[in-house]
Specification:
The chain is of the alpha+beta class and about 130 residues long. The protein is built from 2 helices and 5 strands. The protein has helices spanning about 50-70, 120-125, and strands spanning about 15, 20-25, 35-40, 75-80, 95-100. Bound molecules: zinc ion (ZN).
Amino acid sequence: MPCPFCNPAREDIVAANDLCYARYDIHPVSPGHLLVIPFRHVASYFDTTDEERMALARLIDDCRAKTERAHHPDGYNIGVNVGEVAGQNIMHVHIHFIPRYRGDAGEHGGGVRRVIPRKEGWRRASGSRRGVR
Ligand SMILES: [Zn+2]
């Protein structure tokens, strides 16, 4: 099966620069969920070049500007899964750019620390340390 992130269709590209592009996630977890992807086929974020990392960071800023205008989110999660055990399903690095909206995860907040669901009890266990996320 060919890599779904190599050779993107022009109409799928939401934003781009010389080294990377952004497209909408086909199974968005929130309105405006984007993937920021280097054009070069490389599996791991840790195997990207310094130039690709700078290009990815610049494109994330461009995505934010577009998303602020289109969706008016209240926050963002920006993250990358590295390796199957961490949830990476497509072995071409892609950074999830997930706009967040007040109340969209209920009372639990839904931050990056919650990627391992059974660890969710930390807040109850830690009592008053509510500021740490
Ligand atoms: Zn690829």
